[in-house]
């Protein structure tokens, strides 16, 4: 089976699905890098949402030139996946939040290293200094990527196990939740994957993934625009058009290389269809 599937993969590289044992196709719906809180420490995971299963994987360390592979950490069939109540999901006593000033210090460091790299590039002669600087920048940005997210995104498996991701973006959290809930509207069956099936599914992740690089500057091309910087003055007045009362707030997020960071949040207006924030 493995031999034949490797032949078939060569024939059609554009495929976006894997076949399940029952002969149905498993489409990849969404994937991306998320920080998981596992056994008290933060780990960077690549999460894959297929039509009937959520799979959490880690990119294996491989020798240079070897084919990269994912290692499955866990999976939850969507038929068994439940979201906790809003109160339960926001309450996360075990999350150690890094103080803002430490995150800001790290951003300043990264910014300083960036300027140094630009300087070195201008003095084309001394290119030897660039590599260590880039390595240091990658390490710092990776630290920031792991330590800045603090918005809890919790998932339960009906059969007992519970998982916790930390995101830096409210919007991203609701995107993941909505994508999962949309798939759950279909008639889904619970199942257990055999080790071979899990291997085939995890093996397909590398080929099917849509997000290839972790969102750090070192993965960007040098000729990309440096982006914008400065001060943004925003007044959030009100919102209307809601069909039913809800607790409403507005979040302002800023995108840094496809990675969103929350910059400001209005107060929550409770049980209303017409919130009036008028906040600067």
Characteristic key phrases:
about 280 residues, alpha+beta, PH-domain like, two-stranded antiparallel sheet, about 30% helix
The secondary structure category is: alpha+beta
State the CATH architecture of the largest domain.
Roll
- Helix share bin: 25-40%
Q: Name the beta content range.
A: 25-35%
Rounded to an integer, what's the Rg over CA atoms?
Answer: 22 Å
Number of helices: 6
The strand count comes to 14
| CATH homologous superfamily label of the largest domain | Pleckstrin-homology domain (PH domain)/Phosphotyrosine-binding domain (PTB)
Kindly provide the name of the CATH class of the largest domain: Mainly Beta
Main pleated sheet: 8 strands, antiparallel
Which residues form runs of ≥5 with pLDDT under 50? none
Mean pLDDT: 85
Order of helices and strands: HEEEEEEHHHEEHHEEEEEE
CATH topology of the largest domain: PH-domain like
End-to-end CA span: 61 Å
Q: What is the count of distinct domains?
A: 3
Gross geometry: globular
What's the SSE blueprint?
Layout: H1 2-11, E1 17-19, E2 25-38, E3 41-50, E4 53-59, E5 70-77, E6 81-82, H2 86-90, H3 100-122, H4 130-147, E7 151-157, E8 162-167, H5 170-184, H6 195-208, E9 236-238, E10 246-248, E11 251-256, E12 259-265, E13 269-272, E14 276-279
Antiparallel strand pairs: 1-2, 2-3, 2-8, 3-4, 4-5, 6-7, 7-8, 9-14, 10-13, 11-12
Report on the architecture of this protein.
The chain is an alpha+beta fold and 280 residues long. It folds into 3 domains: 17-94 and 150-215, PH-domain like; 100-145; 236-279, no CATH class. Helix content is 30%, strand content 30%. The chain contains 6 helices and 14 strands. The strands form 4 sheets. Strands 1, 2, 3, 4, 5, 6, 7 and 8 form an 8-stranded antiparallel sheet that branches. Strands 9-14 form a two-stranded antiparallel ribbon. A two-stranded antiparallel ribbon has the order 10-13. The longest helix has 23 residues, at 100-122. It is globular, with a radius of gyration of 22 Å. The model has no long low-confidence stretch (mean pLDDT 85). One of its GO terms (molecular function) is GTPase activator activity. This is Active breakpoint cluster region-related protein. Residues 210-280 form the C2 domain. InterPro entries: Abr/Bcr (IPR037769), ABR_PH (IPR037865), C2_dom (IPR000008), C2_domain_sf (IPR035892), PH-like_dom_sf (IPR011993), PH_domain (IPR001849). Pfam families: C2, PH_19.
């Amino acid at each position: 089976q493995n031999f034949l599937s490797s032949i078939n993969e060569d024939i059609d590289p554009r495929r976006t699905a894997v076949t399940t044992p029952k002969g149905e196709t498993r489409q990849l719906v969404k994937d991306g890098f998320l920080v998981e809180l596992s056994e008290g420490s933060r780990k960077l995971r690549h999460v894959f949402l297929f039509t009937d299963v959520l799979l959490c994987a880690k990119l294996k360390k491989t020798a240079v030139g070897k084919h990269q592979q994912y290692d499955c950490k866990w999976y939850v069939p969507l038929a068994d996946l439940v979201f906790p109540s809003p109160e339960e999901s926001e309450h996360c006593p075990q999350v150690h939040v890094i103080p803002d000033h430490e995150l800001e210090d790290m951003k300043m460091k990264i910014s300083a290293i960036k300027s140094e790299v630009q300087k070195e590039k201008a003095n084309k002669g001394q290119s030897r200094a660039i590599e260590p600087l880039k390595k240091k920048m990658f390490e710092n940005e990776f630290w920031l990527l792991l330590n800045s997210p603090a918005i809890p995104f919790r998932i339960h498996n009906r059969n007992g196990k519970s998982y916790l991701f930390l995101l830096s973006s409210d919007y991203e959290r609701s995107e993941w939740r909505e994508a999962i809930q949309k798939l759950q509207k279909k008639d889904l069956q619970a199942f257990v994957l055999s080790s071979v099936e899990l291997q085939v599914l995890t093996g397909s992740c590398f080929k099917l993934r849509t997000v290839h690089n972790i969102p750090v500057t070192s993965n960007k091309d040098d000729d990309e625009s440096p982006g914008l910087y400065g001060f943004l003055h925003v007044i959030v007045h009100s919102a209307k058009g809601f069909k039913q009362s809800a607790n409403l707030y507005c979040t302002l997020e800023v995108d840094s290389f496809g990675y969103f960071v929350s910059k400001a949040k209005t107060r929550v207006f409770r049980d209303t269809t017409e919130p009036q924030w008028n906040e600067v």
